[in-house]
Amino acid sequence: MSSVFTLLLARETRLLFRRPAELANPLVFFAIVIALFPLAVGPETQLLQTISPGLVWVAALLAVLLSLDGLFRSDFEDGSLEQWVVSPHPLALLVLAKVLAHWAFSGLALVLLAPLLGLMLGLPIGTIPVLLISLLLGTPILSLLGAVGAALTVGLKRGGLLLALLILPLYIPVLILGSGALQAALQGLPAVGHLLWLASLTALAVTLTPFAIAAGLKISVGE
Amino acid sequence: MNWTWFHKLGSPKWFYEISGRWLPWLAWAAVLLVSVGVIWGLAFAPEDYQQGNSFRIIYIHVPAAFLAQSIYVMLALAGVVGLVWKMKLADVALQQAAPIGAWMTFIALLTGAVWGKPTWGAWWVWDARLTSMLILLFLYFGIIALGQAISNRDSASKACAVLAIVGVVNIPIIKYSVEWWNTLHQPATFKVTEKPAMPVEMWLPLLVMVIGFYCFFTVVLLMRMRLEVLRRESRASWVKNEVKALVGNNS
Amino acid sequence: MNFSSFADFIAMGNHGVYVWTSYGISLAVLILNVVLPVLARRRYLQDEARRLRREESK
Amino acid sequence: MSTPFLEAVALACERDWRLLFDKLDLRLESGEMLQISGPNGSGKTSLLRLLCGLMQPTAGEVLLKGQSLNAQRGELARNLLWIGHAAGIKGLLTAEENLTWLCALHQPTNREAIWHALAEVGLRGFEDVPCHTLSAGQQRRVGLARLYLAPPPLWILDEPFTALDKHGVAQLERHLAAHCEQGGLVVLTTHHSLTEKPAGYRELDLGQRAA
Q1: In chain D, whose CA is at the least distance from the CA of A10?
Q2: Could you state, in order of their start, the residue ranges of all structural domains in chain A?
Q3: What is the C-alpha to C-alpha distance for residues D98 and A153, in angstroms, rounded to an integer?
Q4: Which of A153, A206, C24, D194 is least buried, going by the fewest C-beta atoms within 10 A?
């Protein structure tokens, strides 16, 4: 059973690396959105620093959402999902591997890119670890919850906007906790409370959402 | 354990008959309770010593907000019943209750905003309750949009059920995080929506209104479900007879 | 009765606009919620009646 | 009467308010081959998907060895090989990588077996080529190579002959017939009339049922 998990991880990784442009798209999107804000609100460091926690998090949220739209689409179209459903392995496990692979190359890359953009927005060096850890804990939740929406809308012709409508409200706790942690760090307050809450939400998401994703995929495949 | 009652409950024909018998009674109860509550709340309840008469908006705001939240929980419960026991009526209930829930959320938001003007001096304040209500409205929109987007109606009900269940697990998390966010950003000095001690003359009409709103919801839900049952079961002979009888009356 | 005159009741101590707009719009929404299903039902039955007539005339 | 391998009881399927078929009864024993035919939109693919448990019937149920399908998904998965209209082949992966994964989902197999199977379907020399460079017929052959890889007894195939050339069709027909002779069970849809029919061949015309 676990061998199927690692095999799927390897297969997804291989697939992602055979089309590297798709890997880069969410990252470029993330960077562009963040670059838009100084242009829109002006380059004053003080203002940028104040809004940067919210800014980084909203941009991350949208970037993850954007990358999730196609998460299951090709698997749906080429019949791979059907093969997963009729296989003897629990679908929730396969789905977890799929989302994990996706997160490792889009969410994690986002996390690694974030400090650079944070510094460009004028975040002090001392807050960068909090930024890193909060994104590291938060982006898996974004990927997992988003995958629920992607699973439910995979059979639809134009699911992109609908996916955003379904999923963005569910992202709110992550947004509040993530940007809250960064804000606290910016004000010199301890951010551990926020981070612990984020960590518990991550644990909750990892344990519960695969079942919802699996249920969503079964519905979409059974249509 | 004997489960026949449960499956009977799922039978559309049985539902149609029983709901037809209950509907007039519930409708009258809703009209009576809401009118009594409105008149009592508007004319007879004492005014609030801090907010004056604008406080009377509570008699709509709170019942609507209560109902909006319980309808969402009901959606998730219907979703579980529909997914686990494959009961078709639960699917019907889920899809028909969602728009009513969205309307109730809309009422709660609107009255909250109007109430905010005399109390806070602004039409919209990012108060924890109002913000949670706004998010709830988005969650309702999501369910309605998903239901409309999927053409196959069995898949649509199932997908909505999954979404409602995911949403209901999220609602407490959203609620607490929003409340927390609120206390962090603006230490509220004065909260209209929290009345620690309300005299009997004030909360009794509120209670009447809450019960009245629940009755109203039941009436509208039953009306919508009855129509949907007729549509879905249009091949069944009892529906054909029923429709023939109804059409005969109309023409 | 909490008000001394009908004018007082309408004025609601300077908060009349707020109280009456919220009650008014809410009432409108409630009525809309009843009217829409009733209309939908009537339309459905009319469609069915037309269908039945068509089938009979065949 | 013994319990059949796969059985459908009073099956009904409804799609978008249209009843495709109802009160459909089927009894399939080992060694049989069932060809489902009928005009487009008569519910051939839907019926196959119902038998695989991918779709839930509007009414009735599917039984595997006398028990409801939903109660024993694992048992079905061990006995079933399903190749749908899209066979689950990734264009970005090579034929070998695709087959390794598809086999691993059911029963892991080794490289030699996969190369052997690819040679059987006439793809010797294409093992390491990404599938999107192959022609439609060759891609179909990659999917069909699974039929040569220690396959489970029940095969459910949706239009397996699509895009195959004359030689490929004849070879596949022989292979299907041989599987049935050896006690396997094949359910397939195709418009093409089979020339190589095993002893237990039957045909179900969904178009005629409706008429």
Answers
A1: D101
A2: 1-222
A3: 26
A4: C24
Q: Tell me the CA distances in angstroms from B94 to A84, B86, D17, one per residue in order.
A: 29, 13, 19
Which residue from B235, D192, A32, B63 is spatially nearest to C29, judged by alpha carbons? Answer: B63
Q: Answer yes or no: do B151 and D16 touch at CB < 8 A.
A: yes
Determine, for residues B235 and D56 on separate chains, whether the beta-carbon distance falls below 8 Å.
Answer: no
Indicate yes or no: CB of D90 within 8 angstroms of CB of A74.
yes
What's the pLDDT score for residue C32? 94
Does A164 score more than 50 pLDDT?
yes
Q: Which residues of C touch B47 (CB under 8 A)?
A: 2, 13
Q: What residue segments make up the domains of chain D, in order of their start?
A: 6-205
- Asked if B177 lies within 8 A of A168 by C-beta distance, the reply is no
The answer to whether B92 touches B232, Cβ cutoff 8 Å, is yes
- pLDDT category at B3 given cuts 50, 70, 90 is low
Strand-pair category, D32-37 with D200-205: parallel
In three state form, how does the secondary structure of B15-56 look? HHHHHHHHHHHHHHHHHHHHHHHHHHHHHHCCCECCCEHHHH
* Residue range B21-46, pLDDT digits in tens: 999 999 999 999 999 999 988 888 77
DSSP label at residue A125: G
> What is this structure's pTM?
0.89
The CATH number of the structural domain formed by D6-205 is 3.40.50.300
Residues from B in contact with A at Cβ < 8 Å: 83, 135, 138-139, 141-142, 145-146, 149-150, 152, 155, 158-159, 162-163, 165-167, 169-170, 173-174, 176-178, 180-181, 184
C29 and chain B: CB distance < 8 Å anywhere? yes
Q: Is A153 on the interface with B (CB under 8 A)?
A: yes
Cβ atoms B97, B214 nearer than 8 A: no
Q: What is the pLDDT of residues D188-210, one digit of tens each?
A: 998 888 887 888 888 888 877 65
Q: Tell me the per-residue pLDDT of D45-68, one tens digit each, with 9 for 90 and over.
A: 889 999 888 888 888 888 888 888
ipTM (interface predicted TM): 0.88
Kindly determine whether residue B243 and residue C45, on different chains, have CB atoms separated by under 8 Å: yes
Q: Residue D101 and residue A85: Cβ atoms within 8 Å? A: no
